[in-house]
Design goal:
The protein is α/β, with parallel strands linked by helices. It has ten helices and five strands, in the order βααβαβααααβαβαα. The chain has a single domain, classed as Rossmann fold. The protein starts with a strand and ends with a helix.
Length: about 250
């Protein structure tokens, strides 16, 4: 099960699904308030725990229908999706066979003054600008190089389609998140992946996951930012398949 990042959708995984499906059944989802899943009603928000419960309900349904294995799923999450996967593995260990956590965290704190500045600018744009403007800013941070222009344009278009209230609800859910007390409850094999150029989630957050989850492995992907599955797909796909082999 592949869980996407903030403001995106299951289409995050276009470079993974065809490769992984040669080895495993693959399911991509649109998390609550993203893609084809409806945004919250009115001013209502949601939590990461609720998003994890959504995914758990889907897996329960698939198991009851006989279309998912009883031993649980391999959960692979990027950023927001990693938080959801982590919460699910802690709350419903029967549904998590293994975890791959990509550029994600148990609690997010900016990486120094630059990180704080980027976070404040994102909040300011969210409050004052239309979504396409915010989307262009976020997408440029994900794909800053000229040779990544196609990826930038795709990310900007995808992020720009978000209803502002849904994006704000997801940001609030992440801002108040602290999964550190749940880390000892994660018992399944876990791989923590981080890009060496990620300016969104500091490396210290990934290392904290590795320390907090018993037996967790750590992989640093060279020349990669926050969107590691997209900017380094071949390296990332090989890492994941090697980790999952035999589990």
């Amino acid at each position: 099960m592949l869980l996407h990042g903030l403001g995106s959708s299951g289409t995050d995984w276009e470079l993974q699904a065809p490769v992984f499906s040669q080895h495993y059944p693959v399911l991509t989802v649109d998390l609550r308030g993203h893609g084809r899943s409806p945004p919250p009603d009115g001013a209502a928000g949601f939590t990461i725990a609720q998003m994890a419960d959504d995914v758990a309900a889907l897996l329960d349904h698939l198991q009851a229908a006989g279309t998912a294995p009883a031993g649980g799923a391999y959960l692979l999450g990027l950023s927001l999706g990693g938080c959801v996967a982590l919460a699910l593995a802690a709350r419903r260990p029967d549904l998590a066979r293994a975890l791959v956590l990509v550029n994600t965290f148990a609690r997010l704190r900016p990486a120094g003054l630059r990180g704080l500045g980027r976070l404040l600018r994102r909040g300011w744009l969210l409050a004052t600008a239309p979504m396409p403007v915010l989307a262009a800013y976020v997408a440029r941070g994900l794909f800053p190089r000229p040779d990544q222009q196609d990826y930038y344009e795709q990310a900007a278009a995808r992020l720009g389609r978000n209803p502002k209230r849904a994006y704000l609800a997801a940001m609030r859910a992440l801002a108040g998140l602290d999964l550190r007390p749940l880390l000892p409850q994660v018992r399944c094999p876990t791989l923590v992946v981080t890009g060496d150029r990620d300016t969104t989630v500091p490396r210290v957050a990934a290392k904290a996951l590795q320390r907090g989850i018993a037996g967790a492995q750590f992989a640093l992907v060279a020349d990669s930012g926050h969107a590691t599955p997209i900017d380094q797909p071949e390296v990332f796909n090989a890492l994941v398949l090697e980790f999952l082999e035999g589990k």
